[in-house]
Amino acid sequence: MAIIDVVKWDASSDDYAWKFPSQELSTWTQLIVNESQEAVLVRGGQMEGPFGPGRHTLSTDNIPIISKLINLPFGRSPFTAEVWFANLTMPLDVKWGTSDPIQLQDPKYNVMLPIRAFGQYGVQIVNTRKFLTKLVGTTPLFNRQHLTSYFRGLILTRAKDCIARTIVREKVSVLEIAAHLNTISKTLEQEMAEGLEEFGLRIVSFFVNSITTPEDDTAVMTLKAALAKRAEMDILGYTYQQERSFDTMERAAGNEGSLVSPLMGAGIGLGMGAAIGGPLGGHSRR
Q1: What pLDDT score does 129 carry?
Q2: DSSP letter string over 80-140?
């Protein structure tokens, strides 16, 4: 293969790491690193760099691993090595979310309810060597899809734990957890920072944009219907026990062929008479 004269970034802005496709280099090869980028050379398991923005000549003077491989004192000396680029920009719109609902017990109503959480976060590469070694490996390209897939399990596990802790600590219903999104977001940002640091990444921001319950879930529909009924009774000014009594009397009164209706009527009349007659009788004895 032909020796490459110029090595530079030729990948998408959504890519976090990219390996130059050719390894045929020489001591005259120019390495061009753009702003917000870093590059490293890897040969035989040894890593050299990172190289910051600018133009770099891959000579034995500034790259120690080349001087160990090449014995010629001068001239164009070919060698093979991998060149990796890392994108140091800060994408802030990396999406995350629960593909399946998470089951949590509601502390206020003592029922299991499913929840779904969605949000976004931003990360930045702060240690290119660590990032390439621990996260990228031998993959020639590492993009946003790889990032979201790799950290999905970590994010969902910590998000579930944080939401559950908040519900228990604040004794708030799952249906009311949306009022605590800001607190949950800040807590998760701190916890994610610890998890990403070992991969050479810095968490720039982490947001929980929404925590919802599926509208078509049976438990959710039953609970919401009960809450709506309770709100109706509060507005009208009667309790559940009173409503059951009203229903019983209404069914009895509507059943004309039974003895319940006249007895109910008599019972009500006697009760009213006793209530009125008591004080009247007492008055007459005076």
Answers
A1: 93
A2: E-EEEEEE------EEEE-SSPEEEEETTTTEEEEEEEEEEEEEEES-HHHHIIIIITT-S
Instruction: Rounding to the nearest 10 degrees, give the CA dihedral for residues 65, 68, 69, 72.
Output: 120
How does strand 6-8 pair with strand 30-33?
parallel
For residue 46, give both structure tokens: 């040894």
Report d(CA 245, CA 267) in Å as an integer.
Answer: 14
Kindly tell me if the per-residue pLDDT of 75 is higher than 90.
Answer: no
Residues 118 and 176 in one domain: yes
DSSP letter (8 states) at residue 52: -
Number of folded domains that form the chain:
3
Give the residue among 41, 25, 64 at the shortest CA–CA distance from 128.
41
Please state the rounded mean pLDDT for residues 178-187: 92
Strands (E), the chain: 6-8, 15-19, 24-26, 30-33, 37-43, 46-51, 54-57, 78-80, 82-87, 94-97, 102-106, 111-125, 141-143, 201-212
**Is 222 a residue whose pLDDT tops 90?**
no
Between CA 3 and CA 245 the distance in angstroms is 93
Range of the domain at 245: 217-258
Please tell me the predicted confidence (pLDDT) of residue 9. Answer: 94
Indicate if 108 and 209 belong to the same structural domain: yes
Position 267 scores a pLDDT of 45
Shared domain for 110 and 130, answered yes or no, is yes
pLDDT of residue 264: 47
Residues 6 or more apart in contact with residue 229 via CB below 8 angstroms? none
DSSP state at residue 178? G
Q: What is the mean pLDDT of the chain?
A: 79
